[in-house]
């Protein structure tokens, strides 16, 4: 398969703006701009801020805005408190029962007064709870984290992300140099190459394969493969309950990693044949894991790069789980076209990933994944309607979103090859 550098489809307008005809949009924007400029001038005034913080009708909003701004300033500090708790294994230690600060300090080899700084910080962030007898126990957030070991792995690998974000403006200007996340996700460089057209020609193929995707060694893919497998537990069940996998005969999980999603599907749909396509070093790890899980007889793992190799045929269902957002629009569209061509008429594609513009979780897509993927060097979080537009451009129809239980973590779009 030749890597496509097809132009990206035009971005659809935001759902909320669809009813607007242009003159109305211009009129509304003019009034909105005037209103915002008046309002912002008030809010920026220290005298107004002090007044609003005391006036009974505005007091609540003023205090909550002050807190919101403070939380934005302090977000990194809060995240590092969480990081320290995870590194010290505090949540697992306290899962066995409450403990006093001194006992914890001895166990974790910290000076008692510093242990107390961390414990009080964790209490303030609702990770821990201070008991009346002075000991500390897990609070809701600490307990929730205990049930999601994948999140703890994510938190630990954020050390790379934060190093890349140390100078966010340099990163935004593209002058940050090689990032740590680009090293952690080595396939991103090949995808970025596919985006600028450097993948696909015969001469460059060999050179690119030697330095990127298809030639990646097991040591290069093991860290991200392990992280993805561990964090699959956060999303697999939500995807499985949102779509009836049993109605299909054969599934191809494209970019299926180490087979964690296939393993989850296997128990839900016992009659389904399982296929996985990923870079050779990853597919080899998947084959081992699926064998260990007793699924060797049901699963076939194929190694290759979807930027350059044909996808295996024969499946009537394909899945892209946390894959599409890794790729810029050109390679993403080429990938969707390749899947379209590999499916039979009537075949189904499921795209499952966190999406931008998810109501109630806007910063997850646009702030977290927006900057994360920028640091990684390829891809972007897309809104559901942007994914629909790509799917349409790739030739799919009957595109519909299936509701998932926790859209913040994963949303699901189904499409059909006509
Ligand atoms: C029991 C009684 C009486 C009352 C209970 C009251 C009650 C209902 C409390 C609620 C308790 C509860 C059920 C809490 C549940 C909390 C959960 C499930 C929290 C889950 C949190 C998940 C998090 C924080 C996930 C984080 C995920 C991250 C950071 C993912 C990052 C992904 C990356 C970097 C992916 C990279 C892949 C790439 C490169 C983009 O392709
Ligand atoms: C973010 S991971 C998601 C893995 C898995 N689907 C999951 O959700 O746990 C992206 C996957 O796409 C694979 N991938 C990236 N570029 C690829 C390429 N050119 N050809 C095949 N697989 C690729 C990676 O090796 C990785 O396993």
From TrEMBL:
It comes from the Bacteria. It comes from Methylobacterium radiodurans. Residues 71-146 form the O-methyltransferase dimerisation domain. One of its GO terms (molecular function) is O-methyltransferase activity. It holds the Pfam family Dimerisation. Coiled coil: none annotated. Gene3D superfamilies: 1.10.287.1350, Vaccinia Virus protein VP39, Winged helix-like DNA-binding domain superfamily/Winged helix DNA-binding domain. GO terms for biological process: methylation. Keywords: Methyltransferase, S-adenosyl-L-methionine, Transferase. Residues 222-396 form the O-methyltransferase C-terminal domain. This is Methyltransferase. CDD domains: AdoMet_MTases. InterPro entries: COMT-like, COMT_C, COMT_dimerisation, SAM-dependent_MTases_sf, WH-like_DNA-bd_sf, WH_DNA-bd_sf.
């Amino acid at each position: 398969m030749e890597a496509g550098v097809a132009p990206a489809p035009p971005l659809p307008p935001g759902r909320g703006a669809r009813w607007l005809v242009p003159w109305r949009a211009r009129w509304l924007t003019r009034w909105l701009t005037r209103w915002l400029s008046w309002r912002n001038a008030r809010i920026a005034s220290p005298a107004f801020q002090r007044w609003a913080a005391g006036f009974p009708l505005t007091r609540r909003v003023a205090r909550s805005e002050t807190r919101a701004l403070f939380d934005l300033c302090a977000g990194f500090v809060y995240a590092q408190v969480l990081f320290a708790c995870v590194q010290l294994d505090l949540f697992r230690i306290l899962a066995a029962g409450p403990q006093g600060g001194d006992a914890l300090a001895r166990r974790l080899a910290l000076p008692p007064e510093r242990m107390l700084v961390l414990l009080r910080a964790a209490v303030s962030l609702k990770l821990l709870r201070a008991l009346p007898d002075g000991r500390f126990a897990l609070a809701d957030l600490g307990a929730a984290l205990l049930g999601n070991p994948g999140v703890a792995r994510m938190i630990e690998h954020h050390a790379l992300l934060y190093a890349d974000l140390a100078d966010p403006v340099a990163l935004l200007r593209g002058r940050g140099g090689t990032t740590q996340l680009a090293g952690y996700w080595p396939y991103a460089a090949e995808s970025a190459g596919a985006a600028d057209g450097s993948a696909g020609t015969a001469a460059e193929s060999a050179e690119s394969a030697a330095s990127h995707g298809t030639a990646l060694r097991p040591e290069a893919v093991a860290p991200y493969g392990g992280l993805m497998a561990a964090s699959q537990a956060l999303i697999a069940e939500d995807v499985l309950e949102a779509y009836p996998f049993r109605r299909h005969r054969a599934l191809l999980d494209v970019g299926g990693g180490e087979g964690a999603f296939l393993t989850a599907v296997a128990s839900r749909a016992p009659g389904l044949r399982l296929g996985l396509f990923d870079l050779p070093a990853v597919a080899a790890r998947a084959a081992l894991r699926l064998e260990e899980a007793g699924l060797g007889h049901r699963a076939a793992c194929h190694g290759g790069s979807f930027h350059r190799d044909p996808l295996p045929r024969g499946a009537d269902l394909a899945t892209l789980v946390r894959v599409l957002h890794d790729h810029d629009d050109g390679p993403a569209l080429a990938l969707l076209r390749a899947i379209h061509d590999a499916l039979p008429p009537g075949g189904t594609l499921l795209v499952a990933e966190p999406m931008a513009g998810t109501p109630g979780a806007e910063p997850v897509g646009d702030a977290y994944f927006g900057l994360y993927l920028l640091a990684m060097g390829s891809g972007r979080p897309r809104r559901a309607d942007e994914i629909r537009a790509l799917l349409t451009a790739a030739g799919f129809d009957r595109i519909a979103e299936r509701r998932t239980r926790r859209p913040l973590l994963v949303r699901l779009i189904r499409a059909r090859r006509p």
